[in-house]
Structure formats: structure tokens, C-alpha cells
Amino acid sequence: MSTVAGKLVAVTGGARGIGLAIAAALVERGARVALGDIDVEEAQQAAQRLGPGALAFEADVTSIASFGAFIGGAEEQFGQPLDVLVNNAGIMWVGRFDEEPEAAEQRQMDVNFHGVVRGMKLAIPEMRARGRGHVVNVASAASKLPTAGEATYSATKHAVYGYSVAVREELRGSGIQVSVIMPVVVDTELATGTSTGKGVRLQPSDVADAVVSAIEKPRFDVFVPRSIAAWTRLTAVLPQPGRDALYRAMMPNQAEDADAGSRVAYEDRNVLRHP
Length: 275
Prior knowledge:
Belongs to the short-chain dehydrogenases/reductases (SDR) family. GO terms for molecular function: oxidoreductase activity. It comes from uncultured Solirubrobacteraceae bacterium. Keywords: NADP, Oxidoreductase. This is Short-chain dehydrogenase/reductase SDR. This protein is α/β, with parallel strands linked by helices. The chain has one domain (8-271): 3-Layer(aba) Sandwich (Rossmann fold). Helix content is 50%, strand content 14%. It has ten helices and seven strands. Helix 1 links the parallel strand 1 and strand 2. Helix 1 (17-28) packs across helix 6 (204-216). The longest helix is centred in the middle third of the chain and has 29 residues, at 102-130. The radius of gyration is 18 Å and the shape is globular.
């Protein structure tokens, strides 16, 4: 039997994409999953498809009240304390740094970074009181390998990584695990119109499998694919000219390569919050 079976797992951004794939993989392995999403109707439809192991809740990660109600509602409805929080909700604006609207900068930071912080502050104290629990933060390979044309997005993922490192150290000996998942480009709406450079384009199920694996066998750094770990070590030791050459040969430049026109609908709805 899977070691996630019977655990209560809350997943933010669970209505679609990576979040939904994570929820599906967990339900399949016997976990009890709370799907939280700002689009509660879509989350409810997703939960119905997943079956009785999943329930949907409204969750706006930019609101401490909404996030807290999500976790509290999940614990009440399932009748057990939260075992695992998966901070998955995230958004991305793509383009040249000096053309990025301030509203896009602020919302990415509020969702991608402060949303993670809110979740950890809400979930971890009760986990620490019980002496067990796990927080899984879905970040990005951009946490270690920032991408041109994704300046603010990369900054938010750097922030998630740094915050997770520091909190993990504070939790040493507490029985609480922290993991950071760092995938390359994933085939979701968030990545519409973006380039992968010389890399591969993952499927949401690839990230879901990595999350399940990290819950079953806890570890901190989780790169998807694993080969990215070697890339990060190489860029850390190369002199700057070599690092620059490697970046230009292998990494995408979204400021030049992304199809901005195909991203308008996604960014208007999710980043700039235009109706």
C-alpha cells in the first residue's frame, strides 16, 4: 500500500494543470485530497471526476482568510488533520522586464511567493504541535536557472526556494518535512506560447509523480527531470563567461522566443485579472 494512503493532502491551484494532476495521482494512491482553487466551480467539477477521495474548496492564496478557511474546511469535511500541504498555485507574465506592468509584478509576487508563505504559516504550527507533517512547494527550475523574459517569475521562485531553505532549518528535529519541486517547462496554460530552449516540455503527470515520490520518500530538492540537478551544479562552478555561453546555448530566452500574442488571454485573466 502507498504511504500516502489515508493522508489528508491539500493542493492549491487544484482545479487544472499541475495541481489537478497532483490531486489525481494522490487520489489514485488512496489519499484524501482537498482541491483548493480561486475558481471553485472548476475545482468542484474536477473533484467530481476524481471521485469520493476528493473534495473542492474555494481558495484564494492572496487572502489569509480564504486560505485559512480552505485548510479548516478540508479538515472539517474529511474529519482529520492536514498531513500534507502542496503549495502549487502559481501564475506567470512573460516579456521584457521593462515592459512588464507593475500590476503583473505585484500579483506574481503575491500569488507565487506570499501565497506559499501564507500556506506555510497556516499549516506548519499545527503540524509542529502534532510532531509530523509535510509541506511541498511547487516552484520551478527557474528557482536555480532564471530565464530571460521571466524576470519577476524567476524572482518569485528564487524567493520560494530561499524561504523554504530557511524554514526547513528552523524546523529541524520537529518531524516536519519540507520539499521544493523544481520542474522545467510544463505543458499547461501557464506555459502557453513559451519556448523550452534545448530542454524538454514536461507533462503535468511528470510533476505529479515527483510530488508523490517526495511525499512517500521525503527529500528537499526535487528537480524534474533529475538531470537539471547536474545543470545547477555545473552553472555554480563555471566562471562567468562559461556560464553565459551555456545559458545562451541551452536556455530559452522568452523575451525573444515566446509567442506573446498567444499568451494575452491567459495573462489578462490570471495575471492582470481582467474579466
